[in-house]
Structure to design on (886 residues):
C-alpha cells in the first residue's frame, strides 16, 4: 500500500466509475467499500473459494486477486448487474431449486453460472461440475446448485445471457 | 474504526514484556489490554476459565493478548506485527495421551474438564460367556467448520445506551450473557443483533462472544464504533474446530452374533479451556452405543486439556466422533466373527420397546431393519458387492461398499430443554400481518422459512402473511440457542403453540371461529387491535410426558426424539495413486414428518458433503498446538468435482410432540458418511483403516506395508 492513491476509471454494470485508490488495492475492496456493491463477497482472500467472482471483460475472475489498477478501463460485471426489476433467470433457478442456503457463496456462484452458460448454453453434468469448481459451497453439497444450473439453462434465452455478460452493453 | 487482535505465538508460558516497536504512529491507535475490562475478564459460557484477553498466563497459540483499533485498516497488520512480546516459555502438551498421563498439569489438578460414566446392566459379567471378545481403537481428527463467511462484528458503546453489538452469530443470548459478565452492565444495557450470517455449522455458537467482547472493549475505549472482521487465516487459526477423539471398544458377542455387552472408552481433546467441551462430550458419550440393543454397556468418557485453541461446536457435536468409532468397530466385529456387516447389524438393531445405552425406551414405531434393507436395495449393495468381488481381483482400482447405521438425538440433552425453558412469541397487527418472535437464527439451514411456514399453516394464512421479527435481544424473547437440531422440532412446536394462543384470543373474543381462514382472521385482527389493544400469543417449553433423566447416573430419556438413518457409500480406491473417490452415496433416514422437502433434502446433502470432507479430505495439520494449514489452499474441502451423486430418501413417522410431526434433522447427516466411507474402503482393500481423515498418504502407508509383507511371504 506504499504507492500513493491513483485515479482509476472503469465500467461497473454498464456505469462509468472513477475511484481514488491505492494501485494494489483489491478490486473486491473497491467494489465493496468505495462503490457500495456489497453483493460481491470475501471468503478466503486467496482465490480459492470464488465468493468474490465477477466478470471482467467477459472473463470470470476472483476480484480478491485483481489489483484495481488492472481493472483500469475494464468492463466489470457484478451480481448486482444481473437483476433488473425482476430476478434474473439464474437467480430465480437458485431460489426455486434450493441452490442457496446461507447465501454467502451464492453471488459468486451465480456469476460463475452465467459464465458457464455463456460457454455451454446446455451444459452436461461434467461441464457444470468443471464450470463451478472454483466456487466453494459449504452448505449445499452442490446437488441443488447443479439442479439450479440445469433449470436455468432450460429457461434462459440467448438474449438474456448476452445482456448479463456485458456483450449487449458493450455493443451499445 | 477497524479492530485487530495481537495473539500469542507460543503454546504455553508467561508474558514477560510487551514492547510497541518503531515505525508505527502509536498515538493514533486505540490499544486495549486485560486491564481495560470493566467487568470480569472471562468469556462467560459454562465455566469461567477462559479470559477474553490474557493477563500474564498464555495457554495456547493464538491466544488474544492485546487489541488495536485504527481508522485505516491497512495499518492494522503492520501494527500487529510491530508489537513485540517476550515470553517465559513453559512446557506444553499436545496429545490426549500426554494430557491423560499428566506429563504436565495445564488445567485444574489433572487436565480433565469433564468425565461421564454410563453403566447399564452388568458389563463385568458378560465376558465369561462370550463366544467372541473383539477390541479396537479408532481416532478422528479436528475439522474446521469452514463457513464461507468469516467471523465478524461491529460494536458500539455509549454511556446512555450501553453496549450494542451487530454480528454474524448463531446464539444472540449467549453473546448477551457474555457481554453482561464482561462489562458488568445490566441485561437491558446490553443489546445484541444478529445480521445475515454466512454459514455457521456450530462455528458461530460460542466464538462470537469473544470477537464481540473484543470489538466492544475497543469501542468503549475509542468512544466510536469498531468493526472486527477476521480474514480466513485468522479465522482458521484462532477459532474453534471439531474435537479430535479417540475411542476404544471392547465388545462381547454370543455364538449367534448377538451383542452381549461393551466397554467403550471415549476421549476428546478440548484444547486449552473448558468452553463447550463438557456438552460435546455428553452427546458423544450418549451416542457411543448407537442404534443397537446392548443388554449391558459401560461408556466411560472424558474431555482433556491440551495447549491448543479450544475446540468447540461443529454439526453433530461429539456424535460424529463416537459414531465413527462404533460403526467402524461393528464392521470389524462382523468380519472377525464371520458375519456379513449388514447381517451382524440386522441381528442387533434396536427395536421398539428395547432400551438405548441410557436405558431410554424406544417408544416410536421405528423399524431399523427395514431402513437397513431399503438402503441396501436403493444402493444395489448385494449385487454390486458380488460384482466387485470379481472385478477387484484383476483391477488396480478396487471398489467397495460400506454401511453406517446410526441415530441422532434432537434437542438439548437430558434435562437441557427444561433448563432452557424456551419462550416464543407471535404477534399480529391491525392488517392481520403476523410476526414470529424468536432468538432462533437463520444461517442457511432454513429457520425463517420453516418457522413462518408453521405459523402460516397454523393460522390458516398464506406464507407471505407471516414475517420474522429481526433478531435483536431487545425485541425477541429468549428461545434458546440455535443448535442441537432443536429449531424445527422444539421451537417450531412453540411457534405453533404461540399461534394457537393468539388465535384463541380472537376466538374467545367472539371475533372469529377456528378454521375461518384468512379474510376472517384479518377482520378479527383489525377489530381486536382497535378495541382491545396489542394482539399476541406465546409458547413456553413443556417437556413431553413420561420423560425422566438422571443427571448423576446419566440414565433415562436422553433426548425427546431421535432421527434414525442408514447410509451406504460406494468407493473406488486407486492402488496406483492411493486416492479414494466416493462414487455413489445413499442417505436414507426417518426424521418424522418432512416440513419442507427441498430444505430437508438440502440439509442432508450438505451434511453428507461435510461428512465426506471429514472422512477423506479435511486434515488440520498441527505444530505444537498451532494450525499450520490455515488457508483454503492447504485445508481441502470438497469441490463440485469431488462429490458423488448424493441420493436422499426419507421415511416419515410423524412425531407426536413435534410441529406437524417433525423431528430434528440438521446434525444427523454428519454422523454417517465417515464410517460408511471408511467401511467401504476396508471392503475394497481388505485392509483395516481406523482413523480419519484418510488421505492418500495414509492409504499408501497401509497398502504399501501389506504389499511388502506379500512380497516377503512370496
Amino acid at each position: 500500500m506504499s504507492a500513493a492513491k491513483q485515479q482509476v476509471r472503469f465500467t461497473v454494470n454498464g456505469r462509468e466509475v472513477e475511484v481514488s485508490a491505492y494501485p494494489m488495492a483489491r478490486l473486491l475492496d473497491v467494489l465493496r467499500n468505495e462503490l457500495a456493491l456489497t453483493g460481491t463477497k470475501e471468503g478466503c482472500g486467496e482465490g480459492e473459494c470464488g465468493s468474490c467472482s465477477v466478470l471482467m471483460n467477459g472473463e470470470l475472475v476472483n476480484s480478491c486477486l485483481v489489483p484495481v489498477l488492472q481493472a483500469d478501463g475494464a468492463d466489470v460485471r457484478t451480481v448486482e448487474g444481473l437483476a433488473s426489476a425482476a430476478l434474473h433467470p439464474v437467480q430465480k433457478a437458485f431460489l426455486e431449486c434450493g441452490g442457496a442456503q446461507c447465501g454467502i457463496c451464492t453471488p459468486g456462484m451465480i456469476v460463475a453460472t452465467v459464465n458457464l452458460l455463456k460457454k455451454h448454453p446446455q451444459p452436461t453434468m461434467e461441464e457444470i461440475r468443471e464450470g463451478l469448481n472454483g466456487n466453494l459451497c459449504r452448505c449445499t453439497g452442490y446437488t441443488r446448485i447443479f439442479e439450479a444450473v440445469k433449470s436455468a439453462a432450460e429457461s434462459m434465452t440467448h438474449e438474456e445471457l448476452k445482456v448479463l455478460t456485458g456483450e449487449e452493453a458493450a455493443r451499445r | 474504526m477497524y479492530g485487530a487482535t495481537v495473539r500469542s505465538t507460543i503454546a504455553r508460558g508467561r508474558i514477560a514484556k510487551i514492547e510497541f516497536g518503531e515505525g508505527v504512529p502509536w498515538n493514533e491507535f486505540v490499544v486495549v489490554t486485560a486491564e481495560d475490562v470493566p467487568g470480569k475478564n472471562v468469556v462467560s459460557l459454562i465455566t469461567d476459565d477462559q479470559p477474553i484477553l490474557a493477563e500474564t498466563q498464555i495457554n495456547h497459540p493464538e491466544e488474544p493478548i492485546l487489541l488495536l483499533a485504527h481508522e485505516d485498516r491497512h495499518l492494522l497488520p503492520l501494527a500487529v506485527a510491530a508489537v513485540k512480546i517476550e515470553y517465559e516459555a513453559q512446557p506444553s502438551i499436545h496429545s490426549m495421551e500426554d494430557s491423560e498421563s499428566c506429563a504436565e498439569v495445564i488445567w485444574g489438578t489433572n487436565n480433565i474438564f469433564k468425565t461421564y460414566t454410563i453403566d447399564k446392566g452388568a458389563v463385568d459379567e458378560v465376558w465369561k460367556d462370550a463366544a467372541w471378545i473383539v477390541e479396537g481403537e479408532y481416532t478422528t481428527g479436528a475439522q474446521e467448520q469452514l463457513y464461507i463467511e468469516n467471523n465478524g462484528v461491529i460494536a458500539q458503546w455509549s454511556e446512555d445506551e450501553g453496549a450494542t453489538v451487530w454480528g454474524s452469530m448463531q446464539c444472540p443470548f449467549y453473546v448477551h450473557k457474555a457481554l453482561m459478565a464482561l462489562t458488568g452492565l445490566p441485561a437491558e444495557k446490553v443489546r445484541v443483533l444478529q445480521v445475515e450470517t454466512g454459514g455457521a455449522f456450530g462455528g458461530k455458537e460460542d466464538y462470537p462472544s469473544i470477537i464481540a467482547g473484543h470489538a466492544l472493549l475497543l469501542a468503549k475505549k475509542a468512544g466510536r464504533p469498531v468493526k472486527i472482521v477476521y480474514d480466513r487465516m485468522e479465522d482458521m487459526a484462532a477459532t474453534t474446530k471439531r474435537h479430535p477423539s479417540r475411542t476404544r471398544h471392547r465388545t462381547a458377542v454370543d455364538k449367534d452374533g448377538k451383542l452381549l455387552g461393551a466397554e467403550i472408552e471415549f476421549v476428546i481433546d478440548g484444547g486449552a479451556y473448558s468452553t463447550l467441551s463438557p456438552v460435546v462430550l455428553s452427546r458423544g458419550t450418549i451416542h457411543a452405543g448407537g442404534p443397537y440393543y446392548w443388554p449391558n454397556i459401560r461408556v466411560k468418557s472424558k474431555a482433556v486439556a491440551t495447549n491448543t485453541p479450544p475446540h468447540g461446536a461443529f454439526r453433530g457435536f461429539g456424535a460424529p466422533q463416537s459414531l465413527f468409532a462404533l460403526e467402524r468397530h461393528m464392521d470389524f466385529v462382523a468380519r472377525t466373527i464371520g458375519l456379513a456387516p449388514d447381517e451382524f447389524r440386522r441381528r442387533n438393531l434396536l427395536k421398539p420397546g428395547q432400551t438405548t445405552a441410557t436405558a431410554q425406551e424406544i417408544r416410536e414405531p421405528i423399524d431399523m431393519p427395514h431402513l437397513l434393507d431399503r438402503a441396501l436395495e436403493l444402493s444395489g449393495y448385494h449385487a454390486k458387492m458380488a460384482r466387485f468381488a470379481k472385478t477387484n481381483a484383476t483391477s488396480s482400482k478396487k471398489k467397495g461398499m460400506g454401511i453406517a447405521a446410526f441415530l441422532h438425538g434432537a434437542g438439548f440433552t437430558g434435562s437441557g430443554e427444561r433448563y432452557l425453558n424456551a419462550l416464543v412469541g407471535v404477534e399480529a397487527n391491525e392488517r392481520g400481518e403476523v410476526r414470529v418472535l424468536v432468538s432462533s437464527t437463520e444461517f442457511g439451514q432454513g429457520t425463517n422459512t420453516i418457522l413462518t411456514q408453521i405459523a402460516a399453516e397454523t393460522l390458516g394464512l398464506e406464507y407471505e402473511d407471516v414475517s420474522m421479527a429481526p433478531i435483536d435481544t431487545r425485541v425477541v424473547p429468549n428461545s434458546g440457542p440455535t443448535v442441537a437440531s432443536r429449531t424445527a422440532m422444539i421451537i417450531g412446536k412453540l411457534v405453533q403453540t404461540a399461534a394457537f394462543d393468539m388465535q384463541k384470543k380472537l376466538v374467545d373474543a367472539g371475533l372469529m371461529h377456528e378454521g375461518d381462514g384468512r379474510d376472517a382472521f384479518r377482520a378479527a385482527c383489525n377489530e381486536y387491535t382497535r378495541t382491545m389493544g396489542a394482539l399476541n400469543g406465546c409458547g413456553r417449553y413443556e417437556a413431553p410426558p413420561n420423560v425422566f433423566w438422571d443427571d448423576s447416573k446419566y440414565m433415562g430419556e436422553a433426548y425427546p426424539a431421535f432421527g434414525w438413518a442408514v447410509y451406504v457409500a460406494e468407493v473406488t480406491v486407486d492402488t496406483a495413486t492411493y486416492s479414494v473417490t466416493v462414487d455413489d452415496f445413499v442417505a436414507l433416514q426417518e426424521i418424522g414428518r418432512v416440513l419442507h422437502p427441498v430444505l430437508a433434502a438440502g440439509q442432508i446433502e450438505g451434511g453428507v458433503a461435510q461428512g465426506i470432507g471429514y472422512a477423506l479430505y479435511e486434515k488440520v495439520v498441527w505444530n505444537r498446538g498451532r494450525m499450520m494449514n490455515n488457508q483454503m489452499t492447504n485445508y481441502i474441502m470438497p469441490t463440485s468435482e469431488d462429490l458423488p451423486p448424493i441420493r436422499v430418501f426419507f421415511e416419515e413417522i410423524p412425531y407426536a410432540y413435534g410441529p406437524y410431526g417433525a423431528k430434528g434433522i440438521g446434525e444427523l447427516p454428519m454422523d454417517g458418511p465417515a464410517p460408511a466411507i471408511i467401511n467401504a474402503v476396508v471392503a475394497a482393500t481388505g485392509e483395516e483403516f481406523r482413523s480419519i481423515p484418510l488421505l492418500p498418504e495414509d492409504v499408501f502407508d497401509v497398502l504399501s506395508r501389506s504389499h511388502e509383507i506379500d512380497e516377503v511371504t512370496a
